[in-house]
Amino acid sequence: MRLFKKKEEVLDPYTVERCNSCNKLTKRKFKEGDYVFKVTDKCISCGNGNLMVDKIFGEVVK
Amino acid sequence: MDFLGTNLDKLFSASDNSNPLMWLIWILPIFIFMLYGQRIQLQVTSSEINKGLEKIKLYRDDTRKELIAYVKNTIKPSIDPTALLDRYFEYFTILPVDMDPNGIVPKIKHIMRTREDSTRDQVKSLSPNISHVQASQVINILEAVTTLHMLYKMVRHFFLTAKKQNNFPLILPLQMMMPFILEEAEALKVAVSAFKQGQPIGDGIGPMIVGKMMLDTEKKSIALETVMSEKEFEGRKLCLLKAEGPAATVGRPADALEKIFAQSKPDIIIMVDAALKLEGEDTGSIAQGFGAAIGGIGTERFQIEEVATKHNIPIYAIVIKQSIKEAITLMKKEIADSSDTASSQVYDIVKSNTKTGQCALVIGVGNTLGVSQ
Question: Which residues pair with B40 in a beta bridge?
Fold first, then answer.
C-alpha cells in the first residue's frame, strides 16, 4: 500500500516586505514576531521609506 | 502445467468433478463466506479504522504536548498548567432544545458566548503577564486539541461499539467518513504550528484584504476584538470592519454591524471571506455572490441577515476558495496572491452598486491571526 501513500506537503514560511517609498519588494524567510502590515526597518534601497510586511505565506518545499 | 515435477492438473483433478479435494476447494469457501463473510469484512475494516484511530490519538497526544510546552515556555505560569488544560479538553457544550426551534438562535449564541468568555478568562488566569495576542493563540491551540480529542473519542466509541456487538453495518458509515475525519485531524495538527508562531492562516485572507484597505485610517474598537475605520472612495464612504489583529480572533462582526446600523445606515454590505473549494477548483480562485459570507455555528450569519433584511440592504459576497486544511494552516502563496484581485473586485462592487455620497460597509471575515490593520 506504500505505493499509493500520499506525499505529505510541507510549507516553508516566507515574508514579503514592501517599501512605502520606492515600492521595492523583498522576500525573506519568516521570523517569529512578523505579522502582515508590520513596519519593520528602513528601506536600504532608497534610504527614504520604511519597509512594511506586505504578505506572509507558505511555499511548498520541493 | 508441470512445476518441479508436480502436475497441478492431476493434483486438483481438473478434469474430474467428483474429486473430494476439488469439491472442498470450491464449496468450502462459499460456505465460509456465507456464514462468516460479515465477520471477515468486519475484521478487515476494523484493522483499517484502528490504524486511523491510532493516527488521531497520536495527533491528539502530540498537539496536547505542544500546547503544554508552549504555555510553560512562553507564558511561564506560576503553577503547572497541565491539570487545568487537561480538564479543559473534556469540556462539552449542550445545545438548546430544538423541539420548538422558534427563538433558538439567541439561546445558541448565549451558550457559545458563555463558553468563549469562560475559556478566555481561564486562559488569562494562567499568568498575569500573558499578552492579548498570546492568550488568543493559546485559545486557538486549545480549540484544536479539544477538537482532536473529541474526534478521537467519537471514532473510538463507534469503533468499539461495532466490535463489541460484532455489528458490521455500524462500522460502514465510520469507514466511509474516516478519510474526511483524518483530513480534518491532520489539518488541526498542522494548524498548531501556525498558531504557535503567529503566522497568518488561509482563513485570514478576508481580514488581510480589508486590513490593507484600512491602512492609514483611524481605527476604533467597535465590538469585542473588532475594529472599524472609515475612508473615502470616489465620492463614496467606505465603512471597513474586521477582527482586531494580529491576535488569533474572528472578532464579533455581527455585534459591530448592529452598532454601525444604530448610528448610520450603509447602503450595501460587502463580505469578504474564505470559502471551502470543491474538489477540482483552484486554491486562491475568487468567486462573487450574494448573501452573508460567514462561517461558524450560524448565529453571526443569522444576526447579519436579520439586520440586512430589516433595513432592506443588499449583501454581496466575495470568497477566496481553499480546502479545509488550507483554511486553518499557514496561508498558501496562491491565497495571499489573490488579495489584490479580490480587493479590486470589492472596489468594483462599490462603484457599480452605490452612487456618489452613499456608504458601503465592507467586512473582512475570518481569523485575523498574524494580520494587522
Answer: none
Interface predicted TM-score (ipTM) = 0.90
Nearest to B272 by CA among B329, B350, B215: B350
> Which residue in A has a C-alpha nearest to residue B216's C-alpha?
A37
| pLDDT tens, residue by residue, B225-271 | 999 999 999 999 999 999 998 999 999 999 999 999 999 899 999 99
- Half-sphere exposure for B1 (CA within 13 Å, toward CB): 7
Within a 10 A sphere around the Cβ of B217, how many other Cβ atoms? 15
Which chain A residues are Cβ-neighbours of B373 within 8 angstroms? 37
φ/ψ (deg, to 5) at B287: -135, 145
Nearest to B133 by CA among B250, B224, B246, B251: B246
Instruction: Return d(Cα B281, Cα B260) in angstroms, integer.
Output: 36
- Residue A58 and residue B372: Cβ atoms within 8 Å? no
CB-nearest partner of A13 from B215, B245, B330: B330
DSSP SS3 for B112: helix
pTM attached to this predicted model = 0.88
CA distance B9 to B239: 86
pLDDT of residue B26: 83
**Residues of chain A positioned with their CB less than 8 A from the CB of B199:** 13, 30, 56, 58
B208 vs A10 pLDDT, higher one? B208
Q: What pLDDT shows up at residue B366? A: 97
Residues 6 or more apart from B265 whose CB is under 8 A from it? B311, B313, B359
Grid coordinates representing B131 are: 499578552
Closest CA to B235 of B272, B258, B267, B212: B267
* pLDDT of res. A38: 95
